Amino acid sequence: MHVASDSQTARARWRPHHLHYLEWVTNELVPWAGANVGAEGAQMPQHVRFDFDQLCEKGPALCGSPAEVADRIEAMRDGLGLDLHLAMFDHGGLPEALLRDSFERFGNEVLPRVQSAAVAP
Predict the structure, then answer these.
(1) Domain ranges of the chain
(2) Taking a C-beta distance cutoff of 8 angstroms, is the pair 104, 2 a contact?
């Protein structure tokens, strides 16, 4: 998850860090955990290409303006019946200043909206 003042800024500053994290998962965790072996023992591709925009638009990554992130959380809650959302903010070597800004925007602008929508009739 990454929140910035607007969607373009959020994606521009988070893209290299999130893709770095996904590359690490693909190259280090997947082979180490044995998850690269298919059902018949066939080797899965070692390197997977990720479409960052697709991950943010329709996938599990939440990245954008406070309103966009709140909308996505609310849609997940409503569509999947969720009452708990776990988020990972700090991965891929995100600099502390960007991490702090994202946390503050999430706490000050996203959470109040999501919480008020959750209790609305």
Answers:
(1) 2-119
(2) no
